[in-house]
Amino acid sequence: MHVSEDQMIAGLLSGDEEAFRTLVVQHNSALISIVSTIVNERSIAEEVAQETWLAVIRKLESFEQRSSLRTWIFGIALNLARKRIRKDSRTELWETLSSPHRESERHEIFAEDGRWAKPPSAWRINPEEHAQQRELLKLVGEGLETLPPEQKLVVQLRDIEGFSGPDVCEILDVSSSNQRVLLHRARSSIRIYVESKLRDSP
Amino acid sequence: MKTCEEFAEDVTAYLERGLPRAERLHMWVHQMMCASCRTYVKQIQLVRETAAKLKPTSEIDSDQLDTLTEAFRDHHS
Fold first, then answer.
1. What's the pLDDT tens digit per position in A154-191?
2. Which of A44, A157, B28, B58 has the most CB atoms lying inside 10 A of its own CB?
3. Is the CB of B51 less than 8 angstroms away from the CB of A140?
4. Nearest to A22 by CA among A38, A36, A1
5. A17 and B54 in contact by Cβ < 8 A?
6. How many A-B residue pairs are in contact by the CB < 8 A criterion?
7. By CA distance, what is B2's nearest residue in A?
8. Dihedral angle at the C-alpha atoms of A104, A158, A80, A42, nearest 10 degrees?
9. Which residues of B touch A194 (CB under 8 A)?
10. Lowest-confidence pick of A91-100, A167-176, B33-42, B67-76
């Protein structure tokens, strides 16, 4: 049965345990997966997810619905993850988030005049075909793992979890242009990864 | 006229319709004229669509779920 956001929030506020369990089951694995990108360790990510739910319970009455419930929950999780790595003094991630380097791809891919030096080659893959779809899925998954955490995070939120650009800006507390630069860098690195693998294989 | 490099840089904004009208037109014109950039856009879209299928599916441990449910119950009692 589909429960609307308002029904869900009303249920949670009235202490409906089923509503709460549904919410946790719906989002817990995505939370763990996203937090893992920041804290680097699955067991810590599980703890952070747990802390997130406890914070949701405590703060629900003060949730003002300026964003969706899901965006709000992920924002809490990211804040807790941020605190966790600050404790371990791993601050680089947040520095890169607020000012992603626009490092140029041009030396490798583009010529001096801005034309392709290595133009994208057609992939020998038909996305309509099941086995090739699986192959592509595997390569994109591998490509994702090669990304720096701040880029991986944006792909996870935008492309995998389906958050909108403005939602991701809110969750990560970054400007929309930084969000876009990170997303662009990430997708183009994955593309290059996939291309290199499809070229290597016969 | 945009270069391929500029086209590639703006592709993400273009795909989310985040570019002003004139820029969008430049992108469109470039794409019409440049086969490599058409391939590039297609591949970026394919990466995006494929990533969308990578949703994590681990199940929450039932003890953990019960612990959280208890915390929820305590809060409401």
1. 999 999 999 999 999 999 999 998 999 999 999 999 99
2. A157
3. yes
4. A1
5. no
6. 128
7. A114
8. -90
9. 43, 47
10. A91-100
